[in-house]
Design goal:
Elements: H1 5-13, H2 24-34, E1 41-42, H3 44-57, E2 62-67, H4 80-89, E3 94-99, H5 121-135, E4 146-150, H6 152-155, H7 160-167, H8 172-176, H9 179-186, H10 193-209, E5 213-217, H11 221-233, E6 240-244, H12 277-285, H13 289-299, H14 304-316, H15 321-336, H16 341-355, E7 367-370, H17 377-385, H18 389-397, E8 401-405, E9 408-411, E10 428-431, E11 435-440
Parallel strand pairs: 2-3, 2-5, 3-4, 5-6, 7-11
Antiparallel strand pairs: 1-6, 8-9, 8-10, 10-11
Helix pairs in contact: 1-15, 2-3, 10-11, 12-15, 12-16, 13-15, 15-16
Length: about 450
């Protein structure tokens, strides 16, 4: 059965369904399905237990996302937690969205080889204001389920004596054993005390809000462990956390270890959340096929089974990769246009007007073949493809032989194999993913 790309598009662009009726196990399975690879949920049993308690007590869980306003814009990679939180909020839970105006003046040292430039309070506040508008493209920040905080409201008032109390139970070993810190120290690079304390400041956010579950990119994995330690030191139940994979950039480039490079403003491989729909659409179309499948998983509501079927259909030739990529471009453009499907349609029309037709139905290298009188369609296809009669029938049954009808290829019916080959005269036939044949009623010179 051919893959129904139109049905998938309608589901991905339909109004988002209410998920509050899902059981705790179903909520957990959906969160885990979109979480990052490897050990990305800590702890899985703890998260499931919290979800069960939430249902039994009628108390929504408090999820936390912290964003440091270190720059004036965010890109699609930064939006991955927002996309997942949009789904979690539909399960009925709450979100504490923290703009780290205080922590931004320190700077997250995770994965960095040098200290971030210091920012002043005015810069950070201005950045946070821009961030708010960009986050609102994905999340309804006016919802009663969402509370926006600035962590200077508690960290700016924290006395030294209170700070000593909450950090007394945190060992230096857990901080200095971090691989990114060790690399900097081994290379003779500076590591300031303020940077070393950064994850402790994050942890104090969790202590203040009594967070149930924290979410963020996989680059925050070590910081989140420190947050758990801070909550334990404060006599609180440590939060669970969920990490999401980092989004590959638009170019599909790989680093020295062979890993896809993450989206980064410094790497010139990013798409700003605030870009206009035309830029969103065009840049999504530019990504390599390998990156496309990852973006489907991270930026859309597609389920893992649907994604596997779509990818298999593209590999079989039932769905052209360009059509799959155009669907992704429409969905992503709609997402960051606050759900306006017309924005994606307009962007697609503008792209086609600028760059030409949507697809080539008959490639230039299509072979032209002469039909011999008195033979059946089956024999004509055998001669053209070099396949056996049984293999031709198998291809028919798998929808692997299609005839161009108007603007689309239509699967050939098995009954057509016994008809006179003259039925193929003037027809273009697609065999498998890449073989195209044009049948003529007389010799081609």
């Amino acid at each position: 059965m051919a893959f129904d790309l139109a049905a998938l598009e309608e589901r991905l662009l339909a109004p988002l369904p209410d998920l509050s009726g899902l059981s705790p196990q179903e909520q957990f399975d959906l969160i885990r399905e979109k979480a990052g690879s490897g050990e990305s949920i800590v702890t899985p049993s703890g998260l499931l237990e919290r979800l069960k308690e939430s249902r039994a007590q009628g108390r929504p869980l408090r999820f936390k996302l912290g964003i440091d306003a270190t720059a004036a814009s965010i890109h699609l990679g930064h939006a991955i937690p927002l996309v997942n939180l949009r789904r979690i909020l539909r399960m009925g839970h709450r979100l504490d969205l923290i703009f780290g105006d205080f922590t931004a003046m320190v700077g997250d040292p995770s994965g960095r080889v040098e200290e971030r430039p210091a920012l002043d309070e005015a810069q950070v506040r201005a950045n946070a204001g821009v961030f708010t508008g960009q986050a609102a493209r994905v999340l309804d920040l006016a919802s009663p389920q969402v509370t926006v905080h600035y962590n200077s409201s508690w960290l700016g008032k924290l006395s030294l004596s209170d700070w000593l109390k909450v950090t007394r139970g945190i060992g230096m070993g857990s901080l200095l054993q971090r691989e990114d810190f060790r690399r900097r120290l081994d290379a003779g690079a500076a590591l300031s005390l303020a940077e070393a304390e950064y994850p402790l400041l994050m942890g104090y956010d969790s202590v203040t809000l009594r967070t149930d579950v924290e979410v963020g990119g996989i680059d925050q994995f070590l910081n989140f462990h420190i947050c758990r330690g801070m909550m334990e030191a404060a006599g609180q139940r440590p939060e669970s956390f969920v990490c999401f994979d980092l989004l590959p950039g638009t170019t599909g480039e790989r680093d020295a270890q062979g890993r896809l490079k993450k989206m980064s403003k410094t790497g010139a491989n990013h798409i700003p959340v605030a870009a206009d729909p035309a830029e969103h659409y065009a840049k999504v179309l530019s990504v390599p096929d390998e990156v496309m499948w990852i973006w489907y998983r991270e930026l859309t509501e597609i389920r893992s089974g649907e994604l596997a079927e779509l990818r298999a259909a593209a590999e079989r030739g039932d769905v052209h990769p360009k059509d799959a990529k155009r669907l992704l471009a429409r969905v992503v453009t709609t997402l960051f246009a606050r759900g306006e499907r017309s924005a994606a349609r307009d962007a697609e029309e503008a792209f086609d007007q600028k760059f030409g037709a949507r697809k080539v139905l008959v490639p230039d290298d299509t072979r032209s073949l002469r039909l011999e009188a008195g033979v059946k369609v089956l024999d004509a296809l055998r001669a053209a493809t070099g396949e056996s009669a049984s293999q031709v029938r198998r291809l028919i049954q798998q929808k692997g032989i299609q005839v161009l009808e108007g603007e689309a290829y239509v699967p050939m019916e098995e009954a057509a194999l016994l008809r006179p080959s003259e039925d193929l005269a003037g027809k273009v036939v697609k065999v498998g993913k890449r073989q195209y044949l044009r049948f003529e009623s007389k010799s081609i010179n």
